[in-house]
Amino acid sequence: MANKKLIHNIINKTRKSFDFRYQQAINRNKKQLPKTPPLPSLLNYLDSINISDAEIDRIVREYWEAVEKNPSLEKEIADKLKIKYNKNV
Length: 89
Known about the structure:
By secondary structure, the chain is mainly α. The protein has 5 helices and no strands. The N and C termini lie far apart (68 Å).
């Protein structure tokens, strides 16, 4: 008689290997990319707190400079900028 746990693991591996979203998540994790790009949410946040366009350009430049230094922390950088510029409101 076959081991039930072994059969269960084989079925799960097969199901996951054919699941497109699971494959996308694996590829995203290998490349260290966030699920949703944080820049659009940062821009929406900056628009919601009524900052001038020149200030937004400066913040986006600061964001890209930080991402160039460490691309794997893209989401954390956006969160830090949100916190930093929330104080100015």
